[in-house]
Amino acid sequence: MGKTLLLFDVDGTLTAARKDITSEMKEFLANIRSSGTQLAVVGGSDLNKIAEQLAGQDLDHLLQQFDYVFAENGVVGYHGNEAYPVHKIQTRLGEDKLQDLINFVLEYFSKLRLPVKRGNFVEFRNGMINFSPIGRSCTHEERADFVVYDNQHKIREQFVKILEEKFASYGLTFAIGGQISVDVYPTGWDKTFCLRYLEKEFDSIHFFGDRTMPGGNDHAIYIDNRVTGHAVEGPMDTISQVETVLKSSS
């Protein structure tokens, strides 16, 4: 394979949505890495959430499991224990535009009628803002119910279209992320952001993600010509597809 990197999304790829990694997946990845293939992870969530899901909130353990770790699409990143510079959305966008966006979304959500609403509708991260119509404080059961409701009523899809029209001149990208939210970030700060640290280091990069459809937060990197993209349907499918890749190149 030459020098190859396996690059993974988190939610829906290495773990079930917002769940912890299983011991089976951890063992599978450890075996691959011990054979000499390097591993990386890139998630839209912040570093604490990724560490929580993949390493029981232990950042040091997370950095030991993977050769590269990228949070918030790569604006926060590590190679081993070495941290890359952090990029911030407020520096790129400016406070006035940032507040225009947040104020509009809060007003929009205030008029939106859903089966339930909870708290934490706006989560401010380094390189993006995450907006959730139901609120990120919902329970797992409420989250699952929202997934069904959203599939039927296209709540997030309509929300993205409105944001694209309203803020067309702001240089932002709006992507459906995970199960309950929409990620907003400067155009180009999608998951391809992390490739600037990887593309010259490897002969081939295989990316595995579940939201690879247009509008999904894995789409941009999935179709990027610097990677070979693999669309997966959950952790077990990820294992199956990785095994196929490794077998075909052995």
The H-and-E topology, N to C, reads as EHEHHEEEHHEEHHEEEHEH
- Quote the beta fraction: 15-25%
Low-confidence regions = none
Share in helix:
25-40%
Biggest sheet statistics: 7 strands, mixed
Category by helix and strand content = alpha/beta
Q: How are the strands of the largest sheet arranged? A: 5-4-3-2-1-10-11
Number of strands: 11
CA distance, first residue to last residue = 7 Å
Radius of gyration: 18 Å
What report would you give on this structure?
This protein has 9 helices and 11 strands. The radius of gyration is 18 Å and the shape is globular. α8 (219-222) links the parallel β10 and β11 (228-231). It is an alpha/beta fold and 250 residues long. Helix content is 37%, strand content 19%. α2 (47-55) crosses α3. The longest helix has 16 residues, at 95-110.
